[in-house]
Amino acid sequence: MINPVLSINTDLAREILTGFIKSEVTRVGLSHAVVGLSGGLDSALSCVLAAEALGAENVLAVRMPYKASSKDSLDHAQLLIDQLGVQSKTIEITDMVEPLFKLDPQISKIRMGNIMARERMIVLYDQSEVFKGLVIGTSNKTEILLGYSTIYGDSASAINPIGDLYKAQVRQLARAMNIPAPIIDKAPSADLWEGQTDEGELGFTYEEVDKLLYLLVDQRYSPQEAIEAGFNEKFVNTVTARIRRYQFKRMQPPIAKISNRTIGYDFLYLRDWGT
Mean pLDDT for the chain? Predict the structure, then answer.
């Protein structure tokens, strides 16, 4: 089997991503950023990058636990807050989401997770108005390609510095930026319910799928070529089906074109305003 190498130049990635954050935040006349800090690896990396780009005092890390959130998640988030010296708030979401849960006694865990993700994004955007900062995204390339997120929930942000890093690359950069080992080494989880893990929900490991996605997306392999390279046919078909199915999550809502200056087609801010 072809075993693609996903290693990155962490020094260069660090320079590019911190530069991206500083450029995008200052472009709109701001100097602050808001990050939802879950205690997991992805949000930790986004927070570290934002603190390095803008200064720790200009970053607000927001913890938003639900009553079933693990104590480890809160502790790990606090560990990073203490290490970086960023500003922080803890806003409990239990009382915000429980009334919706109670409307349907048969509500599924998936629906509950989506409601919690969207409630957290409401909180983050409210805090962004208070703090006068942009909301920083925390979704990695693997999650985005697989559609493993809640649209207008955890996938929503003003800018996303880690969206072009596969999970393996997030881990590499996190080690280079001295993110605490307990955060790097623990099993990835959205912490939506007790015992929930990303890989348990997906049905495969990040290590496996990162390699396949790299071939399919970055190296432009066809599904058949990926199979011929040694990947299991069912696995390839499952992953490619997810990529296709969740394309809508990766796009702004398409606008039906009727004029000669359509937003997103002919009217593009960067071109029209020279920035």
Answer: 93
C-alpha to C-alpha distance for 108 and 40, rounded to whole angstroms: 24
Q: At what angle do helices 167-176 and 41-54 cross, to 10 degrees?
A: 50
Is the separation of the CB atoms in 213 and 223 below 8 Å? no
Q: Within 13 A of 9's CA, how many CA atoms are on the CB side?
A: 4
Q: What is the DSSP string of 157-189?
A: -SB-TTTTS-HHHHHHHHHHTT--HHHHHSPP-
36 CB burial (10 A radius; 0-12, 13-18, 19+): buried
pLDDT tens-digit series, residues 228-241: 999 999 999 999 99
- β-bridge mates for residue 267, sequence order: 263
Pick from 129, 131, 99, 127: nearest CA to 112: 99
CA 147 to CA 247: how far, in whole Å?
Answer: 8
Distance CA 159, CA 210 (A): 23
Cα distance between residue 27 and residue 25, in whole Å = 5
Domain borders along the chain are 10-203
pLDDT-flagged residues of the chain (< 50): 271-272
What pLDDT, on a 0 to 100 scale, did the predictor assign at position 271?
47
Fold of 10-203: Rossmann fold (3.40.50)
Lookup: tokens for 135: 């909301």
| pLDDT for res 135 | 98
Q: How far is CA 151 from CA 11, 12, 120, 121, 140, in A?
A: 32, 31, 12, 10, 14
pLDDT tens-digit series, residues 44-64: 999 999 999 999 999 999 999
